[in-house]
Amino acid sequence: MQIEVIARHNFSYRKYNEMLDEHSFTLYSDSGGSSCHFKDIIDCSTSLRETFEKNLKPLITAFVSGFNACLFSMGESNSGQNVLLHGHATEVQGLMQLGLQDIFEQLNQDQYKYSYALSTSNEHSPKLFLQSFFVQGEKIVDLQNTDADESSELQVLSTIEDGPVIKGLITTPIHTVHVALGRYQDVMKRYFTLAYTLDGHANTDPAGFFLRVLFLPGSPRLKKSTLTFFSLTGVECLTDYTPMEEYQNPRIDAIRALYSLIDQLSSGPPGKREIPMYGLSTLTRLLTEELGGNCCTRVILSIPPSPNPQIHAALLHMASGLTRITNAPVLNDEAALLLASRYREMNFFLEDAFHRQHSNICGFPDPTRVPEPAALENSQNLRYHIDDLNGRLQRLNEEVAHATEERVRISKLWLTSEEDRVIIADKFAASEVQIQELRIKNQELESIAAKALEASKRAIELKRANDLLNNYCSELYSKLDQCQNELDHAATQNEELSRELVHQMAKQKTLLNRLVRGTEDKDLQAEMENELKRIETMIDPTIASHNAPVTAKPRTLKPLEKDAQKENVRSGKPVNANKDLIPKTLREKQTKLMKNSELQSQIVVLKVERDKAHQDSEQSKKVFARFLDHFRGRLVYHINGITHLVESVKSDDQVVADRAAHGLRRYIRHLLTEMNAANKVREAQLLNVVERMDIECKVTRQAMKEILTAYIYLRSQAIENDGCITDLGTPPLELVDAATRSMKPTDFNLNLSAMALAVSTEAKRKPGQLVRAGNRFPRVSRKPQN
C-alpha cells in the first residue's frame, strides 16, 4: 500500500484560493514550482477527536491486530504541530493521548481472545511496552532517563530480525491506561525541555521525537507489532539545502539524509528496500522500517497561516516523495479490520456451539450426546489448515532469515569491493590529472623553447643590423671629419686671402690717391712692380685668364683722345690706337690696378663662399649629430623593450607568456620594418644633402662670377673715367636670385626628415609632443653603441 499523506492547514481566504485546489486535493508553493497531491486536506478548525477517528484509529486497529503502524508528523515551528499531537487548552488530549487510550480500549474489547488480561507477571498474557527518545544530529537522548551520562552512551545496532535497535534504551512496561498516560506526561516534560529554549522559542536545529509502543500478543503464532509516533522539527534549515550542493554543514546532515532517503524510496520498487546503512544518518536508520518496509504509515503535514515559500516548497517536495513510496505490509487497514471481525465471529460461534452442546439450550441434545460428525470434521480441517499455515509461516521465516544473512554477507562483500573500486578510481583519476598536467607543462615548455629560439634569432638579426648601422655611422663620422678638416683648411686659406685683400685694398687706395693728385714719385713704379710680383707668387697667374671678358659700355672720350682717334682713322690705324697717347707708366698702373681689382673680387667671392660652406657644414654636422644621437637612444629603448618581452616569455603564467610572445613577434617585425625604412630614409637624406651641397656650391660660384663681372665692370668705369661711374648695372641680389633660378634648386628637408623618422620609430608619442622641423633632438652619447 502507498503511504498516505494528509495536509492540515490554517490558511486565510486569500491564501486558500492561491495555494489550494480543493477539488483535486493539491497544494502549490509560491516558489520552486513544487506541488503535492494529498489524500485529504483538513482545516485546523476540525476537532482532534474527529481527526483521530478518521486518520489514526485504523492504524491503532492494525497495530492491535499484529501489524506495524506509524504516524509521521512534520511542519514548521508555527504550524500547530505540537497542538495536533499533544493537545491544547480547548482539547486537552492530542492524537498521542487518544491513541494510547484507544489501544487499551480495543485490547479490552478483544480480551476474550486471550486467556489472560494485560499483565506483567504472566508470560502468556499480552504485554505493552513504551519507549521514547529524542534524536538530534547523531546524538540519541533517552527521554525516560534523566541521567545525561547514560543517555550519551546510546547507539544504534543493526539486527536481522528487528532491524535497527538502540542499545541501552529504557523500555517501560505499561498495563493500564493511567500508567501509560503518566509515563507519557513525564516524557513530554523532558521533550519540551530539549525542544524549546529558555525564552520559550522553539529550537531551530533539526531533531526527531519518537514515541514507540510495543505489543507482545502472548501467543507464539502472532508476531510482535510496533506503533510509532514520530514528530520532525527544525525543518527551517531546509532553506540552506539544495540537492546538488556539497554537504559540508553537519547541522543539516540528519534532515539532508532524510530528504535523500525519501527521494530514493520514492523512485524504487515497492516493499522493503535494500538500503546501505553506511550512507544514512541515525535518524534515517531509525525510520527505514516505517518509510520503506513492513509498516502502515500515514503522514500529517501541518501548514501555518503564512508559510515560508522556500520551506513550504521543500516540505511539499518531501510530501510528494512520500506519496510515491509503496510499502509492503502484510495487511492493510481494511484487511486488518476484516480479519479482526472474522476472528471474533469465529470465536463467538465456536463458544456458542460449545455452550449449546453442554447446556442443551434451544433444542440441542444432551451434553452427553456425541457431537455431529460435520462439525467435528470442520473443526479438524480448520485446525489442520491452521497448523499447515503455521508450518508454512515458520519455514518462510527461516527462509527469510537465511536470505537476510546471505544478503548481509553479500552486502559486506559488495561494500568492500565498492570501497576498493572507489579507491582505485580515485588513484586512476589522480594519475590522469597528473598526466594531463605534465602534457600541458610539456607543451608550455616546447612553446617557450620555440619562442626563445625565435627570439634568439631575432636578437642575432638585431645585433647584425646594429653592427651594420654602427659601421655606417662610423663611416659617416669619418667623412664628416674629413669635411671638417677641409673646411678648416679652406677657412685658414680664406683668412690669409682676407688679410692679403686688406693689404691690396690699402695699396690700391694709395695708388689711386697718387694718380688722382698727379704727383710723381720715382719709387712708385718699382714699388708697384714688387707688389705685382708678390701677388703673382701668392696667387696662380692663370686665375685671371679663366674670368669672363668684361663687356663695358663706351665711355666719353677726352678731346685729346678724340683728335688722336680721328688721326688714326685718316692714316688707316686702329681706332683704339689712342692708348699710345696715354703715358706708358699710367697705362701699366691701370693694368695693374685692374688685375688687383679682379684679384680682390675673386678673394671676396672665395671668402663669401668659404663662410657659406662653413655655415652649411656646421649646420649639417649638428643635424647629423642630433639624428645619430636620437637614433642610438631609440635603439637602446627598443633593445630594452625586447629584453623585457623575452623575460616575460619565460614567465610561469601561460597567459602572460603567450601575450609576451605575441607582442615580441609583433615588436620585432615592426622594428625590422622600421629599420629598413630608416635605412632607406637615411640613404635618401645623405643623397639629398650631397646634391644640395653640390647645387649650392654651383649656385654660389655662378652668383659670385656674375657679381665679380659686375664689380670689374664698375671698377673699370671708375678707373677709365676718373672715378665717374655712369652705369651701375644689375644689383647683386638680383644676380644671386637669377643664378639660383638658373640652377633649379630643390627643397631640402633634412631636419624635417629626421623628425619624421623619430616620430615613426617612437611607438607612443602624445599629440602635444610632435615637434617642428629644425628643433633639437635629445642629447645622448655620440659613442657608437650596440
UniProtKB/TrEMBL annotation:
GO terms for cellular component: cytoskeleton. The keyword Nucleotide-binding applies. Its main location: cytoplasm. GO terms for molecular function: ATP binding; microtubule binding; microtubule motor activity. Keywords: ATP-binding, Coiled coil, Cytoplasm, Cytoskeleton, Motor protein, Nucleotide-binding. It is found in: Cytoplasm, Cytoskeleton. This is Kinesin-like protein KIN-7O. It comes from Clonorchis sinensis (Chinese liver fluke).
